[in-house]
Amino acid sequence: MTVSARIATYFHVHLVSDSTGETLNAMARAVCARFSDTLPIEHIYALVRSPRQMERALEEIAAAPGIVMHTIAEPELRAALEEGCRALEMPCIAPLDPVMASMSRYLGIAVSSRVGAQHALDSDYFDRMEALNYAIGHDDGAGGPQDLNQADVVLVGVSRTSKTPTCIYLAHRGVRAANIPLVPHMPVPPQLRELRKDILIVGLIASPDRLAQIRRNRLLSLKEDRGSDYADTDAIRQEIIHARRLFEREGWPVIDVTRRSVEETAAAIINLLHGPRDQGGEVA
Predict the structure, then answer these.
(1) Model confidence, pTM
(2) I want to staple 157 with a disulfide (CB 3.0 to 4.6 A). Which of 1, 103, 204, 223 is the partner?
């Protein structure tokens, strides 16, 4: 019997932005993820704000034909990009246009052409920067009880349950997040006993098989040997059992990160922050 191999389709995606390109990049990846067996090759042109920069972008676009997406607001630069794409017979998409047009009609207000408005140095921006500094300074149990009492949320879990990246992601959403590890054969970290009652504490768990794989890869990348228990599936299973018992005893909500991305875990935590605080158990 002949088995036909599934071959992925490679294609070029050109992302042209007059700002950092973060919004456009996130949108492009979200859309591309909906098409199976495709592998986009991203070309990012950020801070395109002059005719010369646009010319260089069009030269590179011409060299690698594909789909062009943009968030160019300045009329002359936008016209140059759209005209260049027409000449190259490439699709040129402005994905924010329908959303802005609908919102403009609803609000009765014209769309601003100010570049990078979402990155203004306002109070929200500085709140995010402070939250990021807080997450870095309170990673892996760092910081005293008094500092921890300034947190919005404290994440607790065994090693490699994505505590740190989740805290960093939450910081970008303006959430002050600290994390405390659970270490085998060690008592519950005393910092947890001294936290204010109104601070959200969330337990993170994962399947033993998944954790064992992540820990083995971690040891290989560090060329380190911590002993067999660290990456041993049976030992990890016992860690998870003890962690679950702790979370249940304390009434902390629990999130299983086995099949969740960091973004999904963070979204669940934000929902908990805005929801009732007296419910433990596993979060769906």
Answers:
(1) 0.70
(2) 204
